[in-house]
């Protein structure tokens, strides 16, 4: 069984070819990477989706695209021809996150295709996918914690930096107070 993940700007050419060749396949995700342009700034969208899980992000992005761009005819045509669960169709490649990365990595690790072949099929840079595979292997499958979340090994460092900043601010306040008190005593 071929597991297929596709980032496309068409309406399923790879899927159509697999159907014509009568090759069994399972669509693990699909993503529109076409000409639809959001009016919202990417930074604003990223801020809005921070802390959401992948399903919530996809719902938000889908609603945003419907509001700003209207009907997605590529998606409509794709769904008319291929069976895919709602939560496996993404509106914009820029907002793919943990689940997408894991599925892309699994296509490399479980299939008989090279990283270069999978990267080309998914429209990803080879170096990006290679880095994802390396991170996935090094973390025993716990990488890609999701947008707004922190890897467990980095959590302590972040907390220590935050505490250090608080202590530096307290020290600065104490130095100013000491300066004020010593001036008043003279």
TrEMBL record:
The keyword Metal-binding does not apply. SUPFAM superfamilies: Homeodomain-like. GO terms for biological process: DNA transposition. Pfam families: HTH_Tnp_1 (PF01527). This is Transposase. Residues 150-184 form a coiled coil. PANTHER family: PROTEIN DISTAL ANTENNA (PTHR33215:SF13). One of its GO terms (molecular function) is transposase activity. Keywords: Coiled coil. The keyword Iron does not apply.
